[in-house]
Amino acid sequence: MSEADQQKKPRVIIVDDQAVVAAGIRKLLEPDCEVVACVEDGRALLVEAERLRPDIIVMEVLLPSLNGLDAARHLARKVPESKIVFLSIQGSSWHVAEAFKAGASAYLLKRSQPSELTQAVHAVLMGQWYLTPLIAKDVVKNHANGSQGNKSSPALSSLTPRQREVLQLIAEGRGTKEVASMLNIAVKTVEFHKFRIMDHLNLHSTVALTKHAIVEGLVRL
Question: For residue 109, how many other CB atoms are within 10 A of its CB?
Fold first, then answer.
């Protein structure tokens, strides 16, 4: 392939905290795309996306430091030209709906056929949306029934983006000072958010907050 053809390839950032998975995604994409970066967490993604301004971002929902859904909301403001393709283990109707609300152009599952990823990339580059057939039927059915499915998360939806960020970092085992440093806010502000989250969710300990975040699909076990 000529240098000119190489330059025409869509530029992609891969975001997954599992190195083996990221390597597999890279192998699938490289024949048609130029992979410009692989990162492991949502906050690193925001930095690299703003620096590299890729055409496509292929990302997991469950990411350390900043989950994929909240990262996507930041990306929609910082790099609106970048198309977001979610490739996740999370398949609930709530996660899918939130992903598209956050600005995603495609949503696939990690158990989807490998060829679906390239199909999704080609679709979003043409301005189309893509939803894997593995969950499309459930999403349509739940929408028709006015339901978000049996794994919906109205509690998480009702938290503010900042509260979700604080909840995730606390659930990952980070102390108050570390959370404050990562979010560039005062320790007292972190404590205030934690109090409001606990009050809102009717939870009464850090352990309970952590369990809730895991059950609701905000962080991994």
Answer: 17
pLDDT confidence band for 71 (50 / 70 / 90): very high
Phi, psi of 144 (to 5 degrees): -65, -35
Element containing residue 15 per DSSP (H, E) = strand 11-15
Q: If residue 13 lies in a helix (H) or strand (E), which one and from where to where?
A: strand 11-15
Element of type H or E holding 34: strand 34-39
DSSP conformational letter for 41 = S
Question: What domains sit in the chain, N to C, each tagged with a CATH number?
Answer: 3-144 (3.40.50.2300), 154-215 (1.10.10.10)
User: CB neighbours (10 Å) of residue 1?
Assistant: 8
Report residue 98 as tokens.
Answer: 């939130």
Q: Which among 31, 36, 149, 140 has a CA at the least distance from the CA of 90?
A: 149
Mean pLDDT is lowest, of 110-114, 133-137, 210-214, for 133-137
Residue 68's CB: how many other CB atoms inside 10 A? 29
- Write out pLDDT tens, residues 175-190: 999 999 999 999 999 9
| Sign of the torsion formed by the C-alpha atoms of 202, 208, 212 and 215 | negative
